[in-house]
Amino acid sequence: MLLILYSIGAEWRINTYLTGISRCSDFRNYDFVKHAVAFREDTMKTLYDRFGILNLFNPLRPNGSYRLDLAKYEERMVCKMLCDLARQEGFHLMINIKFENKDVEKLTPDWVRTNIKLEGIFEGTYECPPDKEKEEFRESLG
Q1: How far is CA 137 from the centre of its chain?
Q2: Does residue 76 sit in the same domain as residue 90?
Q3: Total count of domains within the chain
Q4: What mean pLDDT value characterizes the chain?
Q5: Are 88 and 100 part of one and the same domain?
Q6: Which residues make Cβ contacts (< 8 Å) with residue 5, sequence separation at least 6?
Q7: Contact criterion met (CB below 8 Å) for 35 and 101
């Protein structure tokens, strides 16, 4: 992690992360660097483009904001996992939801079934407090 913190420039940080992640054996916490290091938005986008959001998404620690293009397979799979998590842990945990730049009042099973298809832009923030986490379900997604 120190290498990433003190690497000069975004390209060095990205390459250091990509080199280190392949050596990680603690899959429960492999994304700690992503959370601990204040990557700029453009750096995170580059990481997602080079490594794939599905490889960087950790269902054991899904809290965060997402902007997912459902036309991209990997992003659609992350969206489905987030919706499954919300179904198990509580739909109210997904907040600030937008679909195709339109506000969505709340996530519901009918809304997910109707709208999560092969296209569209889904935006939302998943915030689950520790007492609501369903550890076994999260592990089944990982």
Answers
A1: 16
A2: yes
A3: 2
A4: 81
A5: yes
A6: 37
A7: no
Q: Please list, in sequence order, all residues whose beta carbon lies within 8 angstroms of the beta carbon of residue 34, skipping any fewer than 6 positions away.
A: 17, 44, 47, 56
Q: Which residue has the higher pLDDT, 8 or 127?
A: 127
Q: Are residues 45 and 59 in the same domain?
A: no
Q: Which residues pair with 41 in a beta bridge?
A: none
SS3 (DSSP) at 4: helix
- Percent pLDDT > 70 in the chain is 70
- How high is the pLDDT of residue 38? 55
pLDDT digit string, tens, across residues 107-134 = 999 999 999 999 999 999 999 999 999 9
Contact 81, 57 (CB under 8 A): yes
Are 19 and 46 found together in one domain? yes
Q: How many helices (H) and strands (E) does the chain have?
A: 8, 4
Instruction: Show the domain range for 70.
Output: 53-142
pLDDT surpassing 80 at residue 34:
no
Task: Please indicate, yes or no, whether residues 60 and 130 belong to a single structural domain of this protein.
Answer: yes
| Co-location of 41 and 17 in the same domain | yes
The residue behind tokens 């679909």 is 99
Distance CA(75)–CA(71), nearest Å, equals 8
Spatial neighbors of 84 by CB under 8 A, at least 6 apart, are 137, 141
